[in-house]
Amino acid sequence: MPSSTLSRVQARPSRGYWWYLLPGAIAFTVVVAVPFAANIYLSLTKWSGIGDPRFVGLDNYTRLLHDEVFWTSFRNTAAMVIAMVVVPTLAGLVLAATLFDVIGRRFGPKAASFLRATFYLPQVLPVVVAGILWGWLLRPDGAVNAFAEAIGLGAHDWLGDPGTALPMVMLVMIWVQIGYPVVIFMAALQRVDPDLYEAAEIDGASWWHRFTAITLPQIRPETFVVTLTCTIAALKVFGPVWALTRGGPNNATTVPSYFAYNAFFNKLQVGYGAAVATALTLLIVAISIGFLKAQGRVEEAS
Amino acid sequence: MRSPRTMISIGAALVSLALVLAGCGGQDDDAAQSGTGTFKLWHYESANGAMGKAWDKAIEVFKAEHPGVTVEFERKAFEQIQQNASMILASDQAPDLMEYNKGNATAGLLSSKGLLTDLSDEVTGRGWDKLLSPSLQTTARYDEKGVMGSGSWFGVPNYGEYVMVYYNKDLFQQHGVAVPKTLDELTKAMDTFVAKKITPLGMAGAEYPAGQLYYQLALSKADRSFVDNYQLYKGPVSFDADPLKYGAETFRQWVDKGYVSQRSASLKAEDMGTAFIAGKTPMIVSGSWWYGRFSSEIKKFQWGTFLFPGNKLNAGSSGNLWVVPEQSKNKKLAYDFIDITMRPEIQTILGNNGGVPVNADLAKVTDLKNKELIANFAAITAADGLAFYPDWPVPGYYDVLVAGGQSLINGSKNPQQVLTELGKAYEQGVSEIENG
Amino acid sequence: MSTLTLGRTRAARRDPDRYKQGAARWVVLVLVAFTAALVLVPFAVMLMNAFKSPADYSGNGPLSWPESFQLDGLRTYWQQVRFEGKLLNSIVISGAVAVLGVVLSLLNAYALGIGRVRGRLWIVAAFLLANMIPQEALVYPLYAMAKATGLYNSRLSVIIIFTVIQSAFGTYLLASVLGTFPKALLEAAALDGAGRWTTLWRVVVPTVRPTLSVLLIFFFIWTWNEFFIPLVMLVDNSTQTVPLALASLQGDRLMDATTTNAGALISLLPTVVFFLIFQRTLTRGVTVGAVK
């Protein structure tokens, strides 16, 4: 590729740019930093949400370590990462490239836009409503079972059996999530120089070869962004689980955020909820920083 | 391409417009404190339910009697009141009068933190206590720790609710089943249906119905002292002995025998109710809150109700409470409104729409079914038979009960394991309450 | 600016015949269309139930075809929740957050991606914290702060909070994208004597407009569908948003399924319309790569 096109701005840190960070920094301090510090303080107290918190030191954290449900919720997070990061990112890449490269060029950009909007639609649906709709489809006398029986499989209580509840929640999460990478990747593909494809086609490169040699490297920044933000979303997922199963059956689909929410607002143990939230945040921060560092290295190397 | 200057100015205009819109209208200026001014009222009953209809009428009456007052009524999201009541009531945005859930974890907690007005003087002064039987009063009074049953009045209920059996008369007739009078007869009736490949009892594992059936079964072996121990912490509760052991084991037996579907663990109460309305289910064990909906939506068959056979104690309680926030700016108007909802003319509307009134003019309740509903409730309260609900004693116990019920339905745990878990959460929660 | 050309026109004009051959493209189309149809199934269910009468829904279940076409659910919902007010609130909040969020993201990303200020990895990580913290953790402190400043139950509080939360994502995405910004363009601007501020608006913004459009759409739709923080911060009818209105149909023990579906349909429309309008800007982007 022509080096003059894509070479980066020189890494010359310049003081004048600091001013641009000022509004963001002030807003961030007020809305995020201060409340989060307050949350850390709350995690060291016992508090029902009303009156004065009572300081209890690290009690909430020691209790957390022995809470089975808490550990179950963390194990389920791994499943959420598969359903909300791995599958949507991979499928999103292929779909976006197909829509852009095949559908967009051979059937016109209108068809591609229409299909993109379709895939994005689940992102727009309020999550509570999505929960009700999927509940109808998956319930024992629902459409999924009607289909399963028609092709000779027996009916099943998909969300009621601890063995199948988690896979079903994962399926719904993929459905919810898929539109997000598709839209971002398709926007990313707009940035790619069409001449690169042209040159590759003249060389007789296959679609797959073009995809791996041009598309993937070109939209790498967006790929990183999608992967990291999806990972964060997966680690703190709450709404769909709340709407679909409320963490059941018997905690089979519970996740850390639901666990924290439950402590905050159902059990009125705000201190304990704050401890769960803090632990979860630390985990997310650790993963994110590792990720950002890897991204930094890749960017420097390329 | 647009020049950057126009882009910036368009952006600035949009933002300032938004900020102007956002800034104004946020707070309502509290016009006056006296008999004129505004009266802010919140509840979360649906408009076409018994309570919704009765209270709409009460608002009309209130307006007629207080011509100078503007009534600001809002129908709230249940979720919002459930989750944020303490935040709202601790701020200057609190309403003057609000519907709120009864129980230690809700009204009890807020009263113990000084967010609710002590209504004792009004209650005796206006004679509301005379309209409410002792078991209805239990949920209206809270002590300093916020435990129900004694202490001052912090809420006023004006209707009741209880769990019973709804049945499909057509299906009973078609299969030659009589209305059971005892638990034995009930099991025989269910055997008849199972033999004909019909699941006799509708169930919903993902929500309250499973916990309520477990509790109903336990109550069949219980007396008042068990309820006092379990609900009011008057004594220890054993989770590996009857009545709770009987409740969990019998529940599991009923699943094994096919009375309850093994595939109902993921169902919600709504699914159970609509299956009954569709005429697919011979019976469901659930509360009076379905009554109005069944009356208006079941057209294709005859249906009826009977009390859970043989039980002296039944899950049930007063309805939700009217509470007056400490921050209310117009308490006098709030008391006037409560008073209106207690009048026979309003209570009769409740009774005629499938609600359970506490002070209705029964002569004016014409529908035979509604009469039966009210008579059954009167019979339960007369016999001191309201046992409240199984998830009440401990905050957050609802989820534990749902998890336990699901395990009993899908067989992932045996009754012993389920009881151990229920016991553990119960004891932990009670010790938290008692140690403040 | 004259160095930039529209990428799409170039791509579309290029030797169209080569793409029109072979059956493979039809196979691809059918596969993608089939997947898209599967994605739409739950929406079909929603549509079916939005136009049913409550008795029809209760008697025949959610998966049956409506007995008759009813608009009652839609009407009930609109009147019962006073939808027009909620609609205005949602538009004001989401619109303000979308615009402010994009501006804030752009300023941050300009310093991080193009300015390459020292320690940018840590600054990006710090900003991203807004995205990483579970919202439950922020609620009690934010409530206390809003109450202290008189912003409790005002739309402004929600606008401020979500501007920050959304811009965390925007900062990260834009900073990554601007990290690969072509040096040639910046140099050309510098030669023309443009300062940083002018360069930002005249060179950077036009070039990354597709990404800015993505951000605008995402911020609007994400903020529109936010439930938890608005539920805590917005207390009464004069300030509440569309999703909160929808939630008021879910009672303590009962729900109103047909009205909920009708409500969902109405609540969904503004965001879908918004997406369809703005998705045109996604394809009309000016490509960076077209620089010669």
From TrEMBL, chain A:
<keyword id="KW-1133">Transmembrane helix</keyword>
<dbReference type="Pfam" id="PF00528">
    <property type="entry name" value="BPD_transp_1"/>
</dbReference>
<feature type="transmembrane region" description="Helical">
    <location>
        <begin position="114"/>
        <end position="137"/>
    </location>
</feature>
<feature type="transmembrane region" description="Helical">
    <location>
        <begin position="270"/>
        <end position="292"/>
    </location>
</feature>
<dbReference type="GO" id="GO:0055085">
    <property type="term" value="P:transmembrane transport"/>
</dbReference>
<feature type="transmembrane region" description="Helical">
    <location>
        <begin position="78"/>
        <end position="102"/>
    </location>
</feature>
<feature type="transmembrane region" description="Helical">
    <location>
        <begin position="224"/>
        <end position="244"/>
    </location>
</feature>
<keyword id="KW-1003">Cell membrane</keyword>
<dbReference type="InterPro" id="IPR000515">
    <property type="entry name" value="MetI-like"/>
</dbReference>
<comment type="similarity">
    <text>Belongs to the binding-protein-dependent transport system permease family.</text>
</comment>
<dbReference type="InterPro" id="IPR051393">
    <property type="entry name" value="ABC_transporter_permease"/>
</dbReference>
<feature type="transmembrane region" description="Helical">
    <location>
        <begin position="17"/>
        <end position="38"/>
    </location>
</feature>
<protein>
    <submittedName>
        <fullName>Binding-protein-dependent transport systems inner membrane component</fullName>
    </submittedName>
</protein>
<feature type="domain" description="ABC transmembrane type-1">
    <location>
        <begin position="74"/>
        <end position="293"/>
    </location>
</feature>
<feature type="transmembrane region" description="Helical">
    <location>
        <begin position="168"/>
        <end position="189"/>
    </location>
</feature>
UniProtKB/TrEMBL annotation, chain B:
<dbReference type="Pfam" id="PF01547">
    <property type="entry name" value="SBP_bac_1"/>
</dbReference>
<dbReference type="InterPro" id="IPR006059">
    <property type="entry name" value="SBP"/>
</dbReference>
<feature type="signal peptide">
    <location>
        <begin position="1"/>
        <end position="18"/>
    </location>
</feature>
<keyword id="KW-0732">Signal</keyword>
<protein>
    <submittedName>
        <fullName>Extracellular solute-binding protein family 1</fullName>
    </submittedName>
</protein>
<dbReference type="InterPro" id="IPR050490">
    <property type="entry name" value="Bact_solute-bd_prot1"/>
</dbReference>
From TrEMBL, chain C:
<feature type="transmembrane region" description="Helical">
    <location>
        <begin position="87"/>
        <end position="109"/>
    </location>
</feature>
<feature type="domain" description="ABC transmembrane type-1">
    <location>
        <begin position="87"/>
        <end position="278"/>
    </location>
</feature>
<dbReference type="InterPro" id="IPR000515">
    <property type="entry name" value="MetI-like"/>
</dbReference>
<dbReference type="Pfam" id="PF00528">
    <property type="entry name" value="BPD_transp_1"/>
</dbReference>
<keyword id="KW-0472">Membrane</keyword>
<dbReference type="InterPro" id="IPR035906">
    <property type="entry name" value="MetI-like_sf"/>
</dbReference>
<keyword id="KW-0813">Transport</keyword>
<comment type="similarity">
    <text>Belongs to the binding-protein-dependent transport system permease family.</text>
</comment>
<keyword id="KW-1003">Cell membrane</keyword>
<feature type="transmembrane region" description="Helical">
    <location>
        <begin position="200"/>
        <end position="224"/>
    </location>
</feature>
<dbReference type="GO" id="GO:0055085">
    <property type="term" value="P:transmembrane transport"/>
</dbReference>
<feature type="transmembrane region" description="Helical">
    <location>
        <begin position="262"/>
        <end position="278"/>
    </location>
</feature>
<feature type="transmembrane region" description="Helical">
    <location>
        <begin position="156"/>
        <end position="179"/>
    </location>
</feature>
<feature type="transmembrane region" description="Helical">
    <location>
        <begin position="121"/>
        <end position="144"/>
    </location>
</feature>
<keyword id="KW-0812">Transmembrane</keyword>
